[in-house]
Design goal:
heterodimer; A: MetI-like fold; globular; B: 374 residues; Rossmann fold; 2 domains; six-stranded mixed beta sheet; binds adenosine-5'-triphosphate; binds magnesium ion
Chain lengths: 272, 374
Amino acid sequence: MTRFSWFNATALTLGFAFLYMPMIILVIYSFNASKLVTVWAGFSTQWYGELLRNEEFLSAAWVTLKVAVMSSTIATVLGTMAAYVLVRAGRFSGRTLFSGMIYAPLVMPEVITGLSLLLLFIGIGLDRGVLTIVLAHTTFSMCYVSVVVSSRLVSFDKSLEEAALDLGCSPFEAFRLVTLPIIAPAVISGWLLAFTLSLDDLVIASFTTGPSATTLPIKIFSAVRLGVSPEINALSTIMIGIVTVGVITASLITKQAAVRQAREERMAERPA
Amino acid sequence: MNQPVFATWNDPDAKPLIQFRNVTKRFGDFTAIDDLTQDIFEKEFFALLGPSGCGKTTMMRMLAGFDMPSEGQIFIAGQDMARIPPNKRAVNMMFQSYALFPHLSVWDNIAFGLKREGKDKEAINARVEEMLRLTRLSKFAKRKPHQISGGQRQRVALARSLAKAPKLLLLDEPLGALDKKLRQDTQFELMDIQEKTGTTFVIVTHDQEEAMTVASRVAVMDEGRIIQVATPAQIYEAPNSVYVADFIGDVNIISGRAKPTGEKVAIQWAEGQPDILGTTTTKFDAGQEIHFAIRPEKVAISTEEPLDAANKLQGKVLDIAYLGNISTYHVELPTGHVIKAQTANTRRLSRRQITWEDPVWISFTDTAGVLLER
Ligand SMILES: Nc1ncnc2c1ncn2[C@@H]1O[C@H](COP(=O)(O)OP(=O)(O)OP(=O)(O)O)[C@@H](O)[C@H]1O
Ligand SMILES: [Mg+2]
């Protein structure tokens, strides 16, 4: 352990203040009794009540939730499949290229992803709405899922699958009965990650949405242009809450469950 | 005993269950199995013996269908296995690493293969219970693999591979982690299963004693090749090379030049020492390099000069290893060779006549050792 020093303490405080001050202020003001965002007039939860009566916000929330659940589910299926193939297929020609291409969208500017998807949807004549957002979110969150799942698969003992085959499983059964249950924590945390990514995406959603589908981030962004209201603070606080819970759960599941499982798996093997 | 000796491999009409035909397996440019041709017959208990990395597991993996030969063919029951996936082969393998399913209990691990067969519940239950009893795991049925000991895990792996009662069982070091008592019991269980069900076993082991006990034939391997295949007794008494003689059991090797003398072959092995006399059916030319291999238990040791021994040499005791039932004397000859001689300790704590530094005679008959070309 390094010794406590004033310098470290200050640096730490400043760093975290820089990161979290804006959010803390937002959360505090969401409980402000006054309609004026900048004037503190005592504690109240009235804006949360208002929020529940605001049809527009509620429908946006519903759209967001639908999009997030659908896209993260599809992304999890596709991402897991991609990870499995890339980790298991061994060395086929162009494998490096393929795995590189899976990760490229992670660093691609969102504006470009959004724009290219928009062009594609226009090109194939797809009406923009919930469906297009789901497709768009699936595309970009799938990479995250595949990164999470493949890092788990790399350490997965292949002989378990061979044992399943040996005992009469078809390759698909071996995957379903042996591989999937063992890598489940990684798959679940991939899903949670995709879910939170979809929940707070503004840029790609704005590019691919149509008049019929407004997600919460889009709604908030446009509402803010007319002035920040305490209602939006309340809404944002809720979203911060959901995202925080999602991210923390995801990382807890990956860390703890994966560590525990890796240990169990090691233990189940022959001691070296 | 007037039971016919089990020796299908000598029967020219017998159909082998497994045929390796010029099988080569390469990993990159490393050759793990080198042009191997070998038949294994039904109801055999075939043991693979060899140093680490010689290709034993690779042979098994090719039989199970996880690895494909780079060249050559493998037939099981007359069928070319090239296009048959592992799940379509009537073969079960016990993995060297166990490969137990960590998310399933001991019970479910053993039941796994049976459930895939679509057997009814009753039958599965009965079979799993039987396997648990056989491997003495009944108490641990509900535990997960990480909650049991190493030896118990090994038994789960064994039980899981036995459960489906396949025609061919591949066991990759099945008993290594068990204590001696349990190992011997399990060996007899395996032989019993083999006798009852007629299953063919191919088994990898590092334990020579085990190979000697259970195997109908032993294959000694080195660097991807089978050096000798024979019954345990033949391997022990008539190894075909210094490598095999040295690998199985304890042996003294003396190298020299051959000097055929009538029926026998004399070995000139050191200046100023009498030639060693041996008998062989192999033809040796005069002056050819020759190796004389003799087991320590076939070398007698005495303080007095033995009268009518075909071979006798003088030396002094360098070391004595007391092993309970036997003692091994390391005798140094004037030439620097150290010869091991073994005697059974038939009398309890008898006053040993021979101790360190004693001058002694070692002697052996002219049929006690084997003469080898390489
Ligand atoms: N997938 C692989 N890729 C590259 N080399 C391999 C592979 N599998 C095995 N080998 C090599 O092939 C050789 C034979 O391996 P194998 O596992 O058959 O040895 P083994 O006889 O079972 O040894 P042990 O007694 O240590 O289990 C070894 O040198 C090993 O390094
Ligand atoms: Mg091995």
